[in-house]
Amino acid sequence: MSSAAPTTHLWLREETKPMEHRAALSPEVCKKLLEHGGFEITVESCKERIFADSEYSEVGCKIVPGDSWRQAPADAIITGLKELPENDQTPLPHTHIMFAHCYKQQGGWKDVLSRFVEGKGLLYDLEFLQDDKGRRVAAFGFYAGFTGSAVGINAWCHQQLHPGEKYPGIKPYPNEDVLIAETKEKLAKIGKMPRIMVMGALGRCGSGAVSYARKAGIPEENIVKWDMAETAKGGPFQEIMDVDIFVNCIYLSSQIPPFITQKQIDADRQLSVIVDVSCDTTNPYNPIPIYSTNTTFDNALLDIGSSNPKPLQLCSIDHLPTMLPREASNQFALDLLPTLQQLPNRATAPVWTRAEKLFHEKVASMATTN
Ligand SMILES: NC(=O)c1ccc[n+]([C@@H]2O[C@H](COP(=O)([O-])OP(=O)(O)OC[C@H]3O[C@@H](n4cnc5c(N)ncnc54)[C@H](O)[C@@H]3O)[C@@H](O)[C@H]2O)c1
C-alpha cells in the first residue's frame, strides 16, 4: 500500500433481515485488515450476528449502536450483506458494499439505484466483484454445498429412523462440529452408510458437498462425484436413481437435457433424497423438472409425488449457508480479504474500477428501461 493513501474506513452495518446471522466481515478478517494497516473499522452492535460485538472489539474495531450508519462520516464505506430496509427511501450519500439485488431488474431495482443517484453515493455490489476472468472474488458456494449435503444425509437418516414422520425444522448451528456430530450419531444408529452423488463436484458448492460427506464419515467409495465429463453423454441418468442421496450443485448456464425425469422416479429406484443446491427452480431448463417451489428451514423437504411407494423428498432451500453462519461468514470474508486490501488504491484496482463502472452503467440503464 502506498504510504500516501488515506485511511480506509469500513463500517460494518447491522443486518436487519430476520434470521440473518451472517456478516460480511468476520472478526478474523477485521484483525487481518487492521494488521495490514491503512484501515479503520467501525462495527454496529448486532444481537442477531453470529459473532459477538466483543469478538470485534477484541481485535481493535470500534463498536457503535446498530442502525447508526446514516450518521457515519462521509468517507466511511458502509459494508453489509443483505439489502437495506425497503421501507426507507432516503438518499444514500455513502459508498456501500453489499448484495443489493438491483442489477438484474429485480422488483424495485430503480427505487434502490435512485437512492444512490439522489445521495450521490456509490454501490459496489458484492455479486459483481469479479476477477480478471469474470469469476466472483467471494461467494457463499462452498458452505451452501456443505450444508446442503448435511441436510441430504440428515434427511436420509430421518427416513431410516423415523419413517413417514415429518422432517423437523432446521435451525442455524453454532458451528460445523455440532452439525457433523449430529449426522455421525444418526449414521451410527442406522449402522449403514448411504451412497451419495454430488453433481458439479468440481465447483464451489460441489466441493463443499463432497467435504461434508467425507467429514460425516461416508467412505470415499460411497461418494459419487460427477461434473461436466460425466454428463457429456446427456441425461437423464440411471446412475442418479442408483444412489440414496443426490446433491445437485451445477452452475446452469445453458439448456441441457434433464438429469431426472418423472418416469424414472415412478420406476424402481434406490434414490430417496434430492438436495437441489443450485435451486434453478423456476428456470425453464431446470435439470430436475419434477418440482417448482423452493423449500424453507421450517419446511425443508417437499414430498415428490410418484407412483412408486418408496418416498422421494427434495430440499430446495436457496439460502443454505445461513445454517452455518460462523464458518460461512468467515470463509466469505477471507475470500473477500485480498480485494478489500486493495480498497485504499481502489481508483486503480481493476476489481473495484470494474464494479464502479458497472454501477454507473446500471444507473444509466434506468433511463432506457421500463
Ligand atoms: N442454495 C443456496 O443456498 C446456494 C448458495 C450459493 C450458490 N448457490 C447456487 O449453486 C450453483 C453453483 O454455484 P457454484 O458457486 O458452486 O458454481 P461453480 O461455477 O463454482 O461450480 C459449478 C460446477 O458445475 C459444473 N457443471 C456445470 N454444468 C454442468 C453439467 N451440465 N453437468 C455437470 N456439471 C456441470 C461446473 O463444471 C462446475 O464444476 C449456482 O447456481 C449458485 O447460484 C446456491
From TrEMBL:
GO terms for biological process: lysine biosynthetic process via aminoadipic acid. InterPro entries: AASS, AlaDH/PNT_N, AlaDH/PNT_NAD(H)-bd, Lys1, NAD(P)-bd_dom_sf. Its EC number is 1.5.1.7. Pathway: Amino-acid biosynthesis; L-lysine biosynthesis via AAA pathway; L-lysine from L-alpha-aminoadipate (fungal route): step 3/3. Disulfide bonds join C205-C249. Keywords: Amino-acid biosynthesis, Disulfide bond, Lysine biosynthesis, NAD, Oxidoreductase. NAD(+) binds at R135, G203, R204, D227, T231, Y251, V277, I317, D318, H319, L320. Belongs to the AlaDH/PNT family. This is Saccharopine dehydrogenase [NAD(+), L-lysine-forming].
